[in-house]
Write the structure tokens for this entry.
Amino acid sequence: MHSVNELRLEGRIKTFDDASLKKEKKTTNYIMVILVFITVAAFLISFTLGRYSISITDILNIFISKLFGLKTTWSDTVETVIFNVRIPRILAAMLIGAALSLSGACYQGLFKNPMVSPDILGASSGAGFGACIAILMSFGLVGIQVSSFLFGLGAVALTFFISSLIGKKNNAVLVLILTGMVVSTLFSSFISLTKYLADPNSKLPAITFWLMGGLNSTSTKDVLMLLAPITIGTIPLALLRWKINVLSFGDEEAKSLGINTSRLRLIVIICSTLLTAASVSVCGMIGWIGLIIPHLSRMLVGPNYKLLLPASFLVGSAYLVLVDDIARSLFPLEIPLGILTSLIGAPFFIYLLVKGKKGWI
């Protein structure tokens, strides 16, 4: 039997815990609203940046006029810049940033390792090799993107196939990671070989520039190409995010709750690979996004994948849009995105290592 004082104390503790949970949930909701606002603001501000300056007021007037069928009061040049150049580029940046961030967050939870990034299983290097082969064979832009996408999927399929042959149940994840590192290194060597064989006057510069990453040639077709694989990859991850929560604690805990860990791991890998391969096929090899953005999102909303995936989606979208704004506005000559993300990502990751220990998985 509990004394009256003990019961009162237990009641106060329960009330305090409930209040803390409500306060934490309220704070997290505020953070999510702020992230949505930042993403929308980044989307709108990006229209004003570039060699052809357009004000926010003009942009809003154009959108409202197009939406309600009002009379055209702007030049054809402005319409071409907005609808044929900036809208596809901004949308592609948002989709790619979100896709790489989601992929990185899922891989980090899947492998229980904060150093994991979307290219851990060879998707990026495989996609890069596919693009190099297509450029070497003088394919068009669509051919380069299709080849890159297929080779990215093929590299991860090869990793999974080899690991399933040699892996054992008690160390399947470790074998998968090690096999991914080997396959990634193999395709990186193939990339170096294609660069060595490429014509130094035409093919080699094209391969080198593509590998640096960029959105300078993005069109509406590229955005449409991104929509299908990114949608197919995102929806299952969103529906299974509570299971990824359980999986991040280990296979034994997940199996005790009736979760088929092998099947779940396969679904997460397939979806994350779709996101990564589709992104790399359009923009080239852009690093660090899938590594640092999930950590930043985790520090903002915590490790719960119910909130972590939406936060990663929003932060990744806003981040790549802003980096692309810097790439096309900072200097007269556009800077490749891969260079900027590395310059920003490396020191920022060091900061996360020092200040964000509580945010690790």
In short: The domain at 89-359 is CATH 1.10.3470.10 (ABC transporter involved in vitamin B12 uptake, BtuC). The radius of gyration is 23 Å. Residues 4-10, 12-17 have pLDDT under 50 and may be disordered.
